[in-house]
From TrEMBL:
The keyword S-adenosyl-L-methionine is annotated on this UniProt entry: no
Annotated TonB-dependent receptor-like beta-barrel domain residues: 273-689
The species this protein was found in: Flavobacterium fructosi
Protein name: TonB-dependent receptor family protein
PROSITE patterns attached to this UniProt entry: TONB_DEPENDENT_REC_3 (PS52016)
Lineage of origin: Bacteria, Pseudomonadati, Bacteroidota, Flavobacteriia, Flavobacteriales
Amino acid sequence: MNFNKIIFTFLTLMGLQTIKAQENTEYSLKEVIVKGFKTVNGIGHLPDSKDGIIYAGKKSEIILVDSLDANKAVNNTRQILGRIPGLNIVETESSGFTANGIATRGLNPSQSVEMNTRQNGYNISADIYGYNESYYIPPMEAVNRIEMVRGAASLQFGSQFGGLVNYVTKDAPKNKPFEFITSQTIGNYGLFNSFNSVGGNYKKIGYYGFLQYRNMEGYRPNSQQSQVSGFGKIQYNHSEKLNFGVEYSLLRNKIKMPGGLTDSLFYANPKASTRARNWLKSPWNIITAYANYTPSENSTLSIKSTYLFSGRSLVWRNEDGGAEATDGIDPITGTYVSREVGIEKMNNTTTEVRYSQNYTLGSQKSTFAGGVRQSYAWFKRQGGGEGTTNSDFDLSITGDWGYDLDFSTANLAPFVENIFKLYKNFTITPGFRFEYLRSSAKGHKEVEGDVQLTDEVRNRTFALAGLGLELKPGKNTSLYANISQAYRPIDYSQLEPFGTSSRIDPNLKDAKGFNSDLGYRGTIRNYLNFDIGGFYMAYNNRIGVTLATDPITGDYYSIRKNIANSVHQGIESYIEFNILKYFNSQSDFGFSIFNSFSYVDAKYTTGEFKGKRVEAAAKTINRVGLIFSTGKLSTTLQYNYVGDAFGDASNVMTSEDPVAGYIPAYTVLDWSASYKLQNFAIKLGANNLADKSYFTRRTDEYPGPGIIPAVGRSFYLGFTAKFQ
């Protein structure tokens, strides 16, 4: 179609020109200038519906990774995701772990267990419910955007209290048969990171893949790590209505863990190491097949089917004796003590089908979205085996396993949501999800010299309901409110035997509760971006261990049961203001300031610890950034403040228990910059500029036990080139 004719028709229909068309006649039209404004880069929001998924009325964020100045070579989470208000991050790089866990609203951030963690829309954690730990996330150099939805995500994605985080990888470049990008980064503590990707489109086939290699000597002694991660995707575009493809993700790593520290050891030397023989591997494999069908402009159908086969192997001087237990050579035997070996094999299959339909109700367009998720996971856990007295990565054992357990989880969950557009600027979105869950645990475990058998099968069904409201007083602003039920099922560890005189409550229930939000968000031209709101979360039936008395013998015994409820409430605020764009919207330069702030009051409301703060829940998290940008140069200075917290529910300041104790507040400064020139770019920066000694986690097991220090001051320098 002729482009000039399109413009002529458009102007005529809009009433900008009234012209009687005559054959072979030339017309001179007045100049028409169309002004558009680029939105603020830092953080955006998901639309009412996208790819058959409803987001209307929900608190959502979307981060375009390429727009950020950050140390992406090591996935520096506080720089990349730090603009999410209230994001709590477990920083474990100094112990070899680089896939830092995250959580919001005072929830447990360890390995992101409270989050529904996805890549390109499918789950990438070990087990959706039974072992929801994340050992793999894609390298940030390969990620196009990160989508996050708070607790109201429970209806569309799953029941987790923390909500959804979805890492969307880059795709095949449009209208290019081939593109190659290479990025090389070096830094302190032996950092070398090489990221390389290829992609393109040829006729109806699109492809994209990357390979990353990273090696680090580590901030502390005995914290070396090396890893290879890769991804490949090929898609066949049959027509404008139908495409389908396959993806494969892999991770291969080898991590040395330097152990945890006591309080006195940490304050004497945060770089100290108490272990020299601890190793971990966590190979990850995910295969996904998908199809997207759009029979009309108002309906979509998508299918994703995933098979995850992964594992974790661990050989270590275990937690016996705590962080203060030395790992030295026994003067009598002339050798080290035997290490403990553990091997876990994780498998799951998940298929998710989604369908959406736009339809007219009254004079407004409404949207229906529904689907079903089916998953089955099987998990083999072997541990407590007596390993060698050597120092290398050796998984051989002497004798039998201390525990040998088989777990499985079957899940079926249909779900529906509907946007009812009552007026042109007001929507109401009810939703419903039904979950069937079957968990099993079989095997044996040696506890205090006695072998205990377990054979547990639990079946249950849950219904989750929610409601979202959204009012758009302006084109680019909205008031939103929602309330959605959530739950966290009993996980595998809570079904394990844990003591000769201990019991598991046969009436043990899943944790359940709800999330609610009320907020105001929007953008003003290209100089202001904001989202300010409050939340209230009820987290009931928390599981823990307490003492009970046998009614017949009068003897005390420990029992794992539902012991407490907690309430998490507070405010979350994100504001970004571009000062230069405010004075001149057409300026080629930008100078912005952003503030990501949260206040969280998370306390137990029942049980032994009523009135105590929930463990790991910092009251105040505040991140402030200054951004200067031109067409070629961009630089960001970020201030990070995280308030104090406690390691456990008792809120004790110090304890012989390695997980219990005070976690002090800390402030960290990060600076990053990049300079782009056509197809080349240089990036550099410094993390923890002031060399602050701090920690975010206490642990009773790996990678501890004890305090896990965060990384001190570090620098990096990188170079990127694009060839096409």
